[in-house]
Each structure stands twice: as C-alpha cells, then as structure tokens.
Amino acid sequence: MNAVRLNPPATLTKPGIVQDHQVRATIPLASSKSESNRALIIDALTGFRCDLQNLSTARDTQTMIRLLKSEDTTADVLDAGTTMRFLTAYFSVTGQHKIMTGTPRMCERPIGILVDALRALGADITYLKNEGYPPLQINGFAASAESTNRLSIRGDVSSQYISALVMIAPLLPNGLTLELTGAIGSRPYIEMTLEQMRYFGADVRADWEAKTITVAPRPYVPKPYAIESDWSGASYWYSVAALATDETAEINLLGLKAKSLQGDSAIVSIMRLLGVESTFTDTGVRLTKIPTHQTMVWDFTDCPDLAQTVAVCAAVKGVVLRMTGIESLKIKETDRVAALQAELQKIGAELVELETNHLYEVHQLAIAPPGPATIATYDDHRMAMAFAPVAMQQEIIIEEPGVVAKSYPSFWEDMARVATVEFITE
Ligand SMILES: O=C(O)C1=C[C@@H](OP(=O)(O)O)[C@@H](O)[C@H](O)C1
Ligand SMILES: C=C(OP(=O)(O)O)C(=O)O
Q1: How confident is the model at residue 147 (pLDDT cuts 50, 70, 90)?
Q2: Does 286 lie in the same domain as 184?
Q3: Is the pLDDT reported for residue 7 higher than 80?
Q4: 186 is in an annotated binding site
Q5: Are 252 and 283 within 8 A, CB to CB?
Q6: Lesser CB count within 10 Å: N end or C end of the chain?
Q7: DSSP 58
C-alpha cells in the first residue's frame, strides 16, 4: 500500500521559546481541466488551429490531448468523465470509428442519455457490454432526413452530456436546440461551455427560464486562448487556511480571477462562512483568516466538486453543515456520499441523510476516535485532497496519494509548503 503521512507544520523553536506554527505560502495551482478539455475539443473542431496556452497538466487533460491525436481504434479515457463524454460526441460528429472505454468505475458511470441524443442526431453507437454504460463502439455519423435538430434532454444527471452536445452543435447541418427537462445540475459548467464556445465565434443562446439552449450551424473561429487556474483545486487551499491554527496565516493562490468561468469560484462565498477572507490581487487571490460561523447551509447543485472539501473542513472546525444538491456525487469517481460517510467517521464526524437523497448534515461526534486517522481514497482525487488539510491540526495518513494526478498532479509538492509530507511505500 502507498500512503502519505501529513503532519502540522513544524513548530518553530528558538532556545527557550516555542512559537506558533506559521502558515505563509504562495501556491502556483494547476490550471482548470474543465476549461482545458473544452478548449481542446473546440480546437480539434477547428482542425487544431487555436493556440491554447496554459493547458492543464491534469491526467484528464493529458488523456484528452493523447486521444485526440491517436489513430488507435480504442480510446481509453481512464477515469476522466469529461474526456469520455466530450470525446464520444466529438468522435461521433467527426464520423470516426472508435471504441470508447475506461476504468472499471468509468464503465459504471452512465452515458445512455448522451448516447440516445447522439443517435437521434445521426450517430451509430452500440454498447459493448451493458446498455447505457461504457464500453461502447462509435461507428460513424450520418445525419439523415429523420435526424432532428431539436432534442429534449434531462438536466439532472450530468451536465457533461449537455456540454458535449452543444460543443459539437455548430457542426450539425441545422444546428441544435436542446430542451432541458427536470432540475439542472452543475449549470455553471454548461455556462462555461457556452462562454468558451462564444469566445471561439459560436452563435449560442441560452434561455434559462424556458430551459432551452440554441446553437446555430456556424463554424468555430480559431483563436489563441489561455486557460485559467483551477478554482476546484483552489478549494483545498481555502480549507488549509480555514484549518490553520496560525491566526495570521496567509496563502496566495496564483492565477485566479474574481470573474471566472468556473462555478467553483463559489468557494469564496462558502469559505467566508468557514473563516476565510479572499482579497483579489494582481497575481491572484490572498487568503486570510476571519471569524467562523457555527452553523451553515449550502446547496451544492451548482458546485458538486466542492462538497467534499467543505464537508471535511466543517467537520474539523466543529461547524454544523447542512448540505443539499449532492445527489450527483453518487455517480462520480466513486460514490462520494458513501465515501465521505465512511471516512468522516475516522476523524470524529459523521454525514447523515436527514431527508432521503436531498438533505444531509455533517457534524462532529461526541467522542473522537483516538490516534491519527488513515483515510481511504476510493480512486478519487477529491477524497485525498479534501482530507489533506486536516493536517493543519493533526497527523493524518492518506492512502494511494497518486490519485491526485487526475486533476492536480503537483498537489503534494504544494502541500509540502504548509505541512510536513512523508511518503510511505509498503
Ligand atoms: O463539465 C465539467 O467539466 C464538469 C462537470 C461536473 O460534472 P457533472 O455535470 O456530471 O456534475 C463536475 O463534477 C466535473 O468535475 C467537471
Ligand atoms: C467529477 C469529476 O470529474 P469527471 O466527472 O470529469 O470525471 C471531478 O473532477 O471531480
């Protein structure tokens, strides 16, 4: 088993004096894999004529780059959801013949809603194992008299299906109108897609009241584009600041802007309740400590990837956190609700379901388990990174630390700027 042992920052001692732990760090941050993967699809649809700058080093993005270039008939996306969904649409509309597959968990993550929509548009797709799930085979694309330019699609399972469809829509002979049904989850990710499409010259209109998105048949215009730093990755640094015992802690996160395409910039408002103030500077954002609320309620429908960070942070601070909008967590890299329930127990907290599949609460247990916790990560980068900030207050061991490569490969290197980090290989 591989693991990483994290401890609070070493206490600074001078002869006869014990000083408080000091937390001062400047963190470069990885760039956004979500923005990168959209830019790469749009670039591919222009014939690779955009000059993309600051692409993410995340494995999900590196996998996208590799598969877009590859002539292999099998595209293995590993555990990258956007790569699976966006490439399925891209390979379809460009008339390619590909087998789409991924990790065993990827083959449990649903894709039927996207496949049904692509079939209605003219794609020939067959399932190779289980109906509605990867692996699948794409056998080209033929828009016919029966193929439509108007589709109805559920908005409450994954926004990635919607992003995948609208991104290929400028290439469809009659464009596309999507009617979204049910609740719309992860909407900022759809808005990110639409903004990036507009930047590259697409004619896209969203009417959120009527729940429709209309894309005109007009080719993308190749242009240079620079990817922003990753707000989801930034959330772990907010948690580090929130949990730092040094009241004068200061963390500078580079490359973030107040006005972002990323919905996870909501971490600024969330963490104001958990004791972190954000000050935007010329280079990014500076985090400092402020008083904490004792209870808080947050709806994660728009920012599901922040749920684990916030749950762990609140648990350690002893804040009672009520959470809604976390249903989609069950179909991500792991069942994140179950994973949080199991692992929060180890740090003396629990996540309880108050209303079935709707309202959850995180609170501390009366008696904390003794000794340092060893946290399992379930092949989920966000389990590892969400629990790492606990190290600001107590020793914590995190299993399979390599999982962070999915979105933030330099995470442990950056963590070493604020805590002691020791890798254990057995
Ligand atoms: O479009 C994207 O880049 C993403 C959308 C979200 O997924 P869902 O739409 O499935 O919630 C998010 O959880 C994922 O990390 C990235
Ligand atoms: C859910 C995530 O990614 P994806 O769905 O793209 O695998 C994530 O990064 O937290």
Answers
A1: confident
A2: no
A3: yes
A4: yes
A5: yes
A6: C
A7: S
Predicted local confidence at residue 390, as pLDDT: 98
ipTM: 0.99
Distances (CA, A) of 415 to 6, 70, 278, 290: 9, 34, 20, 22
Q: Does 145 have pLDDT greater than 80?
A: no
> Does the structure show a pLDDT above 70 at 20?
no
Are residues 107 and 233 located together in one domain of the fold?
no
Residue spans of beta strands (DSSP E) within 368-419:
373-375, 396-399
Q: How far is the CA of 341 from the centre of ligand 2 (A)?
A: 19
Please enumerate in sequence order all residues whose Cβ is within 8 A of that of 42, keeping only pairs 6 or more positions apart, or say none: 50, 167, 196, 197, 200, 220
* Ligand 1 atom with the shortest distance to the CA of 189: 1
Predicted confidence (pLDDT) at residue 183 exceeds the cutoff of 90: yes
**Domain range for residue 149?**
33-226
Structure tokens belonging to residue 426:
């057995």
How many domains in the chain?
2
Give the position of tokens 């808080």: 296
Residue 281 burial (CB count, 10 A)? 11
Confirm if 315 and 347 have CB atoms less than 8 A apart.
Answer: yes
140 DSSP assignment: E
Residue 353 shares a structural domain with residue 260: yes
* Residue where a domain terminates, one of 226, 258, 274: 226
Q: Which two tokens stand for residue 59?
A: 């494995």
- The closest-lying atom of ligand 2 relative to the alpha carbon of residue 407 is 9
Is residue 380 part of the annotated active site? The answer reads: no
Cα separation, 208 vs 193, in Å, equals 15
| Domain of residue 72, CATH code | 3.65.10.10
Residue located via tokens 């199991």: 342
105 and 140 housed in the same domain: yes
Are 30 and 233 contacting, i.e. CB atoms less than 8 angstroms apart? yes
pLDDT at 426: 78
Name the band, by pLDDT with cuts 50, 70 and 90, for residue 249: very high
